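Sanity check

After download, print the first record. It should look like this:
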Amino acid sequence: MNTIPEQYDTFADFADGKSARLARVGVRLEPAVAPDRLHIGLPDGQAVVWPIEDIRQLPDQADRAGLVLSADDDQVSRLFLHDEAVIKALRGLAQNLHQRKPVQNKFRLFKWAIAAVASVALIVMVLVPVMADQLARILPPEGEKALGDTTYENIRTALNETGIAPLKVCETPAGLAAMRKILTRLNPDDDLPYKIQVDILDHEMVNAFALPGGRIVFFRGLIEAAENPEEVAAVFAHEIGHVVNRDPTRDALRAAGSIGVLGLLFGDFAGGTLILFLANSLVNATYSQKAEAGADVYAHGLMSNAGLSPAALGTMFERLRAKHGDAEGLVAHFAAHPALSDRIEASISAAEGFESTGPVLTPEEWRDLRNICGTSHIIEGTGAPTPNTVRDGNGNGTKTGGQFGSGNKLLPAD
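Expected structure tokens:
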């Protein structure tokens, strides 16, 4: 009959967590007399007692034959045990050997977690916007333009599905002359912190947006979707309103600040990822209701002063929404702005009693503007857009269906 020894005595290596040197210690296990504790005799004559129920085994990839132990109340110390008889006896006594230490003060940890989340939310949603607003006022125009130029080039690269070359810039001389004529008619120079630079990209997306530094970008799809040049002028005026108020710069600084905070918490973001995120946020910018209202009011005034109807912006969005419903890009883009109907109505109301001083473009100039990316996009003689074409940086592409297929984003000009 096997009998359990009254005690086991052996030697082991002990790390106290304070120095890098291992100490040779004596270990005593007394299953018959004191099965609830493990005695560790230190070289200086002192003893450490670990309750058996608090002892946990730690993984040791370097020495799988031995046993690495810690105690719940002594997390930094380690005991390296190699005596097979003691290891076997300890395994029989220590029922919690392979279990994790119970989490204590769960409610306190929960409160700390909530406080941490609230702190991050406060920084991202309050402090970062406040700082972005302040920086947008003092950032020199050269810095804004550099940010806008970098973001613009990354947008061209990101939107080209081939990945070979940046998205084609539309620049037929007659089309550019028509766009310059619209800008001259609007005449916003007195309000601008810097000169306006306009680019038209060969993409079917129905969108336009402003970048830091005064660059305004139109997509071919928006010009094709407009029924008349006054609608393009209204979108242009709205984006100029964002430039005047420096909304793109403010939005870019907010996005960069938020990414920086989140990068510190969850891992650093590479510079390229940051730029692509900024590009995406500016293409699909949903400014605050205050910023949108400000750009709208500015556009109404600019259109009126130019002798053009302020209702053009509202009628364009009204027509697109009526034609394509509320389920697609237009309303999805404005999900954060439930007052879209009020904005459309405001533009129409701003035109009450208004008398136009004449069209912004002649029929020939309007045709030139619609052909700014090349005649392949326009049905000759009608000015109506052909089915969408997805193009690479060399102008090559394939048709993808009707003018407003499921791949399109019916985005207003922000």
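If your output differs, re-run the checksum step. Summary of this record's structure: The chain has two domains: 8-93, 116-399.
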